[in-house]
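User: Sequence in, structure out. Go.
Assistant: Echoing your sequence, followed by the C-alpha coordinates.
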Amino acid sequence: MRTILAPLRRNSRGFTLVEIMISVTIIGLTSIGIIGFLRQGLKMYYADRARLMINRDIRTFTDKIDTDAVDANFFCLYPSFATTYNGSGGTATDAAVADGQVGDFLVLVFVLPKNTSGVSLIYQIVGYYREVTNTTLNTGPVHRFSVDLSANPVDVTSAPMYSILATYVTGSASSYPVVTQLAQGLATPSPSVTPALFYNFQNRSVMVNAQISESLSENGLTTTAGNTYNFSVSPRG
Protein backbone atom coordinates (compact mmCIF):
# COMPACT_ATOMS: atom_id res chain seq x y z
CA MET A 1 0.00 0.00 0.00
CA ARG A 2 1.35 3.41 -0.91
CA THR A 3 1.04 6.15 1.65
CA ILE A 4 0.40 9.72 0.39
CA LEU A 5 1.69 12.42 2.72
CA ALA A 6 -0.40 15.60 2.84
CA PRO A 7 1.57 18.85 2.50
CA LEU A 8 2.26 20.58 5.77
CA ARG A 9 0.17 23.71 6.36
CA ARG A 10 1.94 26.88 7.26
CA ASN A 11 1.17 28.25 10.64
CA SER A 12 -1.11 31.31 10.29
CA ARG A 13 -2.86 33.50 12.86
CA GLY A 14 -5.11 36.63 12.73
CA PHE A 15 -5.00 39.81 14.76
CA THR A 16 -6.13 39.56 18.31
CA LEU A 17 -8.81 41.87 19.69
CA VAL A 18 -6.22 43.69 21.77
CA GLU A 19 -4.07 44.37 18.73
CA ILE A 20 -7.07 45.68 16.78
CA MET A 21 -8.06 47.98 19.65
CA ILE A 22 -4.52 49.32 19.92
CA SER A 23 -4.40 49.97 16.16
CA VAL A 24 -7.77 51.74 16.18
CA THR A 25 -6.65 53.88 19.14
CA ILE A 26 -3.44 54.88 17.38
CA ILE A 27 -5.31 55.74 14.19
CA GLY A 28 -7.88 57.74 16.18
CA LEU A 29 -5.24 59.71 18.06
CA THR A 30 -3.40 60.41 14.81
CA SER A 31 -6.62 61.58 13.15
CA ILE A 32 -7.42 63.88 16.07
CA GLY A 33 -3.94 65.37 15.83
CA ILE A 34 -4.27 65.93 12.09
CA ILE A 35 -7.73 67.51 12.48
CA GLY A 36 -6.43 69.79 15.25
CA PHE A 37 -3.49 70.80 13.08
CA LEU A 38 -5.78 71.55 10.13
CA ARG A 39 -8.17 73.50 12.37
CA GLN A 40 -5.33 75.62 13.72
CA GLY A 41 -4.09 76.18 10.20
CA LEU A 42 -7.56 77.36 9.11
CA LYS A 43 -7.70 79.73 12.08
CA MET A 44 -4.36 81.24 11.08
CA TYR A 45 -5.55 81.51 7.47
CA TYR A 46 -8.77 83.26 8.48
CA ALA A 47 -6.88 85.57 10.86
CA ASP A 48 -4.54 86.57 8.02
CA ARG A 49 -7.54 87.20 5.77
CA ALA A 50 -9.17 89.33 8.47
CA ARG A 51 -5.98 91.37 8.88
CA LEU A 52 -5.83 91.93 5.12
CA MET A 53 -9.46 93.08 5.22
CA ILE A 54 -8.63 95.48 8.05
CA ASN A 55 -5.73 96.94 6.07
CA ARG A 56 -8.08 97.34 3.12
CA ASP A 57 -10.66 99.08 5.29
CA ILE A 58 -8.07 101.42 6.78
CA ARG A 59 -6.66 102.34 3.36
CA THR A 60 -10.15 102.97 1.97
CA PHE A 61 -11.19 105.06 4.97
CA THR A 62 -7.94 107.06 5.00
CA ASP A 63 -7.94 107.73 1.27
CA LYS A 64 -11.56 108.86 1.18
CA ILE A 65 -11.59 111.11 4.23
CA ASP A 66 -8.18 112.63 3.48
CA THR A 67 -9.18 113.40 -0.12
CA ASP A 68 -12.41 115.01 1.06
CA ALA A 69 -10.76 117.01 3.84
CA VAL A 70 -8.13 118.50 1.53
CA ASP A 71 -10.74 120.51 -0.37
CA ALA A 72 -13.20 121.15 2.47
CA ASN A 73 -13.37 124.66 3.93
CA PHE A 74 -14.48 123.78 7.45
CA PHE A 75 -16.03 121.00 9.49
CA CYS A 76 -18.76 120.46 12.06
CA LEU A 77 -18.64 117.59 14.51
CA TYR A 78 -21.81 116.20 16.10
CA PRO A 79 -22.45 113.57 18.79
CA SER A 80 -24.14 111.22 16.31
CA PHE A 81 -25.98 111.05 12.99
CA ALA A 82 -29.27 111.43 14.86
CA THR A 83 -28.09 114.16 17.23
CA THR A 84 -27.39 117.38 15.32
CA TYR A 85 -29.47 119.80 17.41
CA ASN A 86 -30.63 120.38 20.97
CA GLY A 87 -34.18 121.28 21.93
CA SER A 88 -37.00 121.47 19.39
CA GLY A 89 -38.96 123.84 17.19
CA GLY A 90 -38.02 127.50 17.48
CA THR A 91 -35.84 126.82 20.52
CA ALA A 92 -33.58 124.29 18.79
CA THR A 93 -29.84 124.99 18.81
CA ASP A 94 -27.01 123.47 16.83
CA ALA A 95 -25.42 120.54 18.70
CA ALA A 96 -21.95 120.74 17.13
CA VAL A 97 -19.31 119.85 19.73
CA ALA A 98 -16.58 122.29 20.72
CA ASP A 99 -12.80 122.05 20.95
CA GLY A 100 -11.70 119.06 23.01
CA GLN A 101 -14.99 117.21 22.66
CA VAL A 102 -15.82 114.05 20.70
CA GLY A 103 -18.52 112.84 18.35
CA ASP A 104 -19.46 110.15 15.86
CA PHE A 105 -20.69 112.39 13.02
CA LEU A 106 -18.22 114.48 11.02
CA VAL A 107 -19.55 116.95 8.44
CA LEU A 108 -17.12 118.43 5.89
CA VAL A 109 -18.42 121.60 4.25
CA PHE A 110 -17.29 122.92 0.85
CA VAL A 111 -17.83 126.62 0.14
CA LEU A 112 -17.46 128.68 -3.02
CA PRO A 113 -15.44 131.91 -2.90
CA LYS A 114 -17.50 134.90 -1.80
CA ASN A 115 -19.54 136.41 -4.61
CA THR A 116 -19.79 140.10 -5.42
CA SER A 117 -22.25 140.51 -2.57
CA GLY A 118 -19.79 139.05 -0.12
CA VAL A 119 -21.84 135.89 0.38
CA SER A 120 -20.27 132.43 0.73
CA LEU A 121 -22.26 129.58 -0.78
CA ILE A 122 -22.11 125.90 0.19
CA TYR A 123 -21.80 123.71 -2.90
CA GLN A 124 -21.13 120.31 -1.29
CA ILE A 125 -21.52 118.50 2.01
CA VAL A 126 -19.70 115.25 2.84
CA GLY A 127 -20.42 113.32 6.00
CA TYR A 128 -18.75 110.44 7.84
CA TYR A 129 -20.51 108.86 10.77
CA ARG A 130 -20.41 105.75 12.89
CA GLU A 131 -23.66 103.84 13.28
CA VAL A 132 -23.48 102.17 16.68
CA THR A 133 -25.26 98.84 16.23
CA ASN A 134 -23.88 97.18 19.37
CA THR A 135 -24.25 99.49 22.37
CA THR A 136 -22.62 96.98 24.72
CA LEU A 137 -19.36 96.87 22.75
CA ASN A 138 -19.81 100.39 21.34
CA THR A 139 -19.19 99.15 17.80
CA GLY A 140 -20.74 99.57 14.38
CA PRO A 141 -20.03 100.40 10.73
CA VAL A 142 -18.78 103.74 9.44
CA HIS A 143 -20.84 105.31 6.65
CA ARG A 144 -20.19 108.09 4.15
CA PHE A 145 -22.53 110.35 2.18
CA SER A 146 -21.99 113.19 -0.26
CA VAL A 147 -24.58 115.84 -1.16
CA ASP A 148 -23.99 117.91 -4.29
CA LEU A 149 -25.50 121.40 -3.98
CA SER A 150 -23.67 122.97 -6.93
CA ALA A 151 -26.91 123.40 -8.91
CA ASN A 152 -28.47 125.40 -6.06
CA PRO A 153 -25.74 126.53 -3.63
CA VAL A 154 -26.88 127.39 -0.12
CA ASP A 155 -25.97 130.62 1.68
CA VAL A 156 -23.80 129.54 4.60
CA THR A 157 -25.53 132.12 6.81
CA SER A 158 -29.09 131.34 5.70
CA ALA A 159 -29.67 128.67 8.35
CA PRO A 160 -27.81 126.79 11.10
CA MET A 161 -25.92 123.76 9.87
CA TYR A 162 -28.25 121.28 11.56
CA SER A 163 -31.14 122.76 9.58
CA ILE A 164 -29.19 122.46 6.31
CA LEU A 165 -28.41 118.84 7.14
CA ALA A 166 -32.04 118.10 7.93
CA THR A 167 -33.04 119.53 4.55
CA TYR A 168 -30.50 117.78 2.33
CA VAL A 169 -29.46 114.63 4.23
CA THR A 170 -32.70 112.69 4.17
CA GLY A 171 -31.63 109.04 4.42
CA SER A 172 -31.61 106.91 7.56
CA ALA A 173 -28.38 106.05 9.37
CA SER A 174 -28.12 102.67 7.65
CA SER A 175 -29.00 103.85 4.14
CA TYR A 176 -25.65 105.35 3.11
CA PRO A 177 -22.62 103.39 1.82
CA VAL A 178 -20.38 101.65 4.35
CA VAL A 179 -16.70 102.63 4.41
CA THR A 180 -15.63 100.40 7.29
CA GLN A 181 -17.54 97.33 8.45
CA LEU A 182 -16.80 97.49 12.17
CA ALA A 183 -15.29 100.29 14.24
CA GLN A 184 -15.06 100.87 17.97
CA GLY A 185 -14.68 104.50 18.98
CA LEU A 186 -11.71 105.22 21.26
CA ALA A 187 -11.62 109.03 21.23
CA THR A 188 -12.60 110.50 24.60
CA PRO A 189 -11.54 113.59 26.58
CA SER A 190 -12.21 111.88 29.93
CA PRO A 191 -13.12 108.44 31.33
CA SER A 192 -16.66 109.64 32.09
CA VAL A 193 -17.42 110.30 28.40
CA THR A 194 -18.50 107.47 26.10
CA PRO A 195 -15.71 107.03 23.51
CA ALA A 196 -16.50 108.20 19.98
CA LEU A 197 -14.81 108.04 16.58
CA PHE A 198 -13.77 111.69 16.13
CA TYR A 199 -12.04 114.23 18.38
CA ASN A 200 -12.26 117.99 17.80
CA PHE A 201 -8.75 119.40 18.08
CA GLN A 202 -8.83 123.19 18.52
CA ASN A 203 -11.60 123.50 15.91
CA ARG A 204 -8.90 123.15 13.25
CA SER A 205 -8.37 119.43 12.90
CA VAL A 206 -10.24 116.21 13.45
CA MET A 207 -8.48 113.28 15.07
CA VAL A 208 -9.77 109.82 14.19
CA ASN A 209 -9.25 107.31 16.98
CA ALA A 210 -10.76 103.85 16.62
CA GLN A 211 -10.23 100.14 16.55
CA ILE A 212 -11.07 98.70 13.15
CA SER A 213 -12.16 95.06 13.26
CA GLU A 214 -13.11 92.28 10.87
CA SER A 215 -14.75 88.94 11.68
CA LEU A 216 -14.81 85.83 9.48
CA SER A 217 -17.08 82.82 10.00
CA GLU A 218 -16.46 79.87 7.69
CA ASN A 219 -16.54 76.09 8.07
CA GLY A 220 -17.75 76.39 11.66
CA LEU A 221 -14.84 78.64 12.67
CA THR A 222 -15.11 82.29 13.73
CA THR A 223 -12.02 84.48 13.76
CA THR A 224 -11.90 88.17 14.68
CA ALA A 225 -8.94 90.51 14.19
CA GLY A 226 -8.60 94.15 15.14
CA ASN A 227 -6.17 97.02 14.83
CA THR A 228 -6.07 100.39 16.62
CA TYR A 229 -6.11 103.28 14.20
CA ASN A 230 -5.12 106.94 14.76
CA PHE A 231 -4.72 109.80 12.29
CA SER A 232 -5.89 113.38 11.82
CA VAL A 233 -7.34 115.44 8.98
CA SER A 234 -7.57 119.20 8.54
CA PRO A 235 -9.84 121.04 6.10
CA ARG A 236 -7.61 123.21 3.94
CA GLY A 237 -9.90 124.35 1.12
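User: And one key feature?
Assistant: The mean pLDDT is 84.
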